[in-house]
Structures are given as C-alpha cells and as structure tokens.
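Section handout, structural biology tutorial.
Before the tutorial, make sure you can parse a SMILES string by hand: atoms, branches in parentheses, ring closures as digits. In the record below the ligand is zinc ion, and the chain has 641 residues. In the tutorial you will relate the predicted structure tokens back to the input. Do not try to memorize them.
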Amino acid sequence: MFEIKYKDGAGRAGVFEVRGKKLETPYLFPVINPKRQVLDVKEIERLGFNGIITNSYIIYRDTALRQRALERGIHALLGFDGVVMTDSGSFQLYQYGSVEVSPSEIVRFQDEIGVDIGVILDIPTPPDVGYERAERELEETLTRAKEAARLSRKMLLAGTVQGSTYAELRERAASGIAALGFDVHAIGGVVPLMEEYRFADLARVILHSKLKLGHAKPVHLFGAGHPVIFAFASLLGCDLFDSASYALYARDGRYITARGTYKLEELHELPCSCEVCAEHSARELKGLEAEEREHLLAKHNLISCLEEIKRVRQAIYEGSLWELVEQRARAHPALLEALRVLKGYSAQLERLEPVTKRSAFFYSGMESLSRPAVARHIERLSWIERRGAELVLLPDCEKPYSRTYRLASSERYHVCIASPVFGVIPLEIEETYPLTQHEGVATLDREQLAFMRRVIAEYAQRFTKVHYHISLEFLGIEGEAFDEVSQFRFAGGEELKLRALADYQLGKGAGEALFAGARAEYSRRTGRIRRAFVDGELVATLRASDGIVVPTIAGAERLLRLRYPRCRVVVAEEARQFAKEGKSVFAKFVVDCDPELKAMQEVVVVDESDELLATGTALLSAEEMLEFERGIAVKPRHRRR
Ligand SMILES: [Zn+2]
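Predicted structure of the complex:
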C-alpha cells in the first residue's frame, strides 16, 4: 500500500508498505547480481538501503542457484531481510532477443522463491522502432499483463508500460496496465533513452504514461539509475528507481556525481566526502588493484545515488523540487532540453502543484517562467473581481510592496506591481504564496521582458485607463506615465483586499460569499490583516507566513453558499462522526470533492447531504484524494460545535 506524505510538483514523498516492510519514496533499489556481488549485501544495508532488486531470470537459469532459491527462499539466498524486488528477464529479452521461460512461469517462480515485488515478463520495445512493431509488442505485453494479473500470488506485482517513443501508445499501454490492479506501475523501455542522453524523449514518455496511470500506485522508472535524472523524474511523479550503473560504471572506472559522470583518470580531486572519498585521494584510487578500485568506486557511486535521492526527498518536503530540477538541468544541455519540454505540459502539472510550500519561489532563469505556479497565478488573476476601474502599475521593489509604497488598491485604482517573475501582482493579494515569497533578479533577461509585456498588455485590457510609473517606460505600455506615487494613496479598502484574496485562493465568487461587508482587524506588530469579521462574527484568519485565508466555522458556512461541490470535501457516512470530532479525513472515506481542489488548499468538510462538519487543509489534490485508499486527505482545523 502506498501513501503520500508530502508533495511538490507532480512529485510525492511517501511510504510504500511492502508485506509489512516500509520503503520511503522516492526510493532507489540497488541492483544485485546474484552471481557476482561487487558490494556485499550487508554493506549495502549498512549504507541505509532496506530494499534491493535482483534478476529472477538469472537465478532461474542457473540450476544450483534455482535449487537454493526454491529451498531457502530469495531472502536467505541473498542474505537480506529487507524488501526484495526481482526483474523477470525482460532485460535479457531486450539484449538477446529471446528468453527460455514462459511469461507465466517466471511470474510463478518469483512468487515461489518468496520475492516481495515481482515483475511481469513484458516486451521491452526500443525507442524509434516502426509504429506497427511498437503496437504489436505492446499488445503482447498487455496480454501477458492480463495473464499475470490473474495468477494467484503472495507477492506484490509490477505491470510495465511499454509503447516505445509513441505518446499515443504509451497512453494506451498505461490505461491497459492501470485497469489490471497491479501493485506497482512500471515504465519500461527507457534504458536506451538514458544511455543516449535523450532526456526530452524520456520526459515525454513519463508524462504520457503518467497521464493514464492514475495516482494511487507507486511508479517505477525502470533502468533510470543515475542521479542526474532522479530530481527530474521525481518531479514528474516517479517514485521508484533501480540502479545497476553504480556497479557497471565502477567496473569501467567511472565515478558518478549528481552533476554527471567522470572517468577516474580525469579526476584531479574527488568532489565528494563519502567514506571512500574521505579516506582516499584521486591519485590513490587510480593506483589501486582493479578489484579493490572497483569495489571502492561502486561504494562511492552508490552513496552518490543515495545522496541525491535524499536531496530529492528533502526538496519535496520543503517544496523546492522545481528549484532542484532547474539546478540539475544546468548539468547538461540534454537535461535543459527536457526541462523545456515541460512547458507544453503545464496544465497537467498544475493540477498536482500545491498552492503553498515551506520554501520560497526562487527564479533561476527563463525556464522558471514556465513553472505551473506562474501559469496558475496568471489564470487566477482573472478570478479576482475587478473593482478598480483604472490600473496603476508600479515597478518591483522591496516586499511587502504595499508597505514600501504605502499604497493600497481602492474602488477607483487597482494598484499592481509589474513583476519580472509573475507579470502582474495586484497589491490586494501580494501576501499570498508565492507572490511575497519569491526572489528574482534585478537585471532582466530578454525572455522576462517579453513575458512582462505579454502579461501586462493582456491584463491592462480589463481596465478603462492605465497609469504606469515613469520608470516602466521600457515596457512600452499604452497609458499615462506618472512620477508621483502619492496621488494614488488611499486608506482602507480592507473589504476589497479580503474579497480579492478569497477569489484568488478559492475561486470566483468566494470573496463575495465569505467577505461581503467584512471588517478587518490588523496585527499591531506587522500592520497586516490578521482576522476578518462579518456582522461582528469572526469568519476567517489570515496566515502570516503565506497569506492563506483560513475560514472559521462561520466562514465555512458562508462558503457553502457557493454551488456544490465548490471548496468542499465530502466524506462517507461511516467517517462522518470522526470528521465531526475534528479528526483527520482519510482518503479512502472521501466520496466527492471540488474537482479543482489543490493540495494545501483550505477546504470545507461536509457529509453526503452537504451538512458542514469541519474545516481543514487538503493534503492532496482532488484526483489524488478520490483515488487513494491510504493516507490523510484533509488535516483538520476547526470543527463544528
Ligand atoms: Zn565519494
């Protein structure tokens, strides 16, 4: 069973429970050769791995090994108590064109030797083959998948998505695999893409497979065992990886880092402080006997892989996975190419993007403008009621903007920042993540300029008149230039601000429902709105860290005026009482919800007759909370008294 703990991008950090043993995802399985172990299994375990993958076909084909595996089981054979996953000979099929075992026989064998996660014997179709071949082999894989899914077994089973480099076939394969109830969804046939540095094609393969695989099962990207790709693949929602390269590269004298691979001869320094690199210099490593050098390199390589996996998990936890991916994309142009591919899949990625994170949005170059958070902001600008008839544009400055300029929007003037990262930032919503919580650069690149011009021109169309600060002349905005900011100075406007915040965060009309006639209470320390009242009743608080509107029970009642199922998470009858008592809402009890709901959004929890039970924070997006059988969907906040 798989459960999500933290999310960032389409990536998830979670727990995958395999027959009572738990893997923290994203997880990397070191590949063990059952005949020749460069690193001892005990050593691998000591480094912190509690799951390994080996090849069941190699064991099956070796009479002595097979006998021992059947008698003692795979765990005793390898001397490993953790999770053992096995591959099925699909790689050998790819390399030699045939294997001497039937697809159902090898699945049965994996189960018989006590494997924890087995894999079907799929047909690994290489990239760029003719469409007909790719389709034919995919149909064969699906037939085998159906057969395998029917076999009774104790182990978990992975079904593999094939389809070569054809988007349509990957989607068809993913739909077929998703329908069969496998425990793990694998994406196969990508090793040649990895080897040839075709990361843009790899991105498309993952994106199209993920589109139809659903969310509730862990996704294993087969054969992507190099740290340069972990952050990227995790961002797209891959949860499991396997690495044979740590050992294969070691044999070739190659040294793995998250920035790429070096030949040992090329290294003057060892840019790492793992136990191997701390105890040896580059020169010492070069001078060692082949066997010892291979052993030490394998150990360093595996630690290097593990380090990157941990870095990815931390990035998901703190919400900086996009930043990490953009950093990694600078390691090789092929990775940058892959990052640029994501621009075309912004809508798909936006659905899974949390609305607030622990860490700030860091601009790292023009690709940052294509992040879902930026596209989301621009879309949400249209959700805000346009109360001010005239647009006032000011240059970016120190945040909070309204404090620096000592300005607020009024009925007449809608005051905005011309932002090099978000295009336009209305002062009313500046506190909302990531608008205040972002860092950009003061010197603009050409792409930012074009982006600002486009967003501002489009936004300006909604207003009868545009005033822009004289320093923004370079943008070529149609309108009237001004120098004196104080002419737009205005006190009050708190209802306007509250309504804009609610519209922006919770959708069109939320401001009217929650804050019509609202009065604000300001923090004496920060001067910012902390609480909002309607007719003397507290309806919401504003979270200081990210400007999120947190409705009270009275506020939630007002939000229920919005058409069903807006802002709602609907719980099944059996969980009604728990929700009412202010307990967490588990995903398996969610029967319906606002289809536009995003992770980290504030929600209203209702029962099936739309009666208010509680409020809380959604930890998952709409589609995830409807699909998952495990884990928390809504963290409780207020309950109805
Ligand atoms: Zn090292």
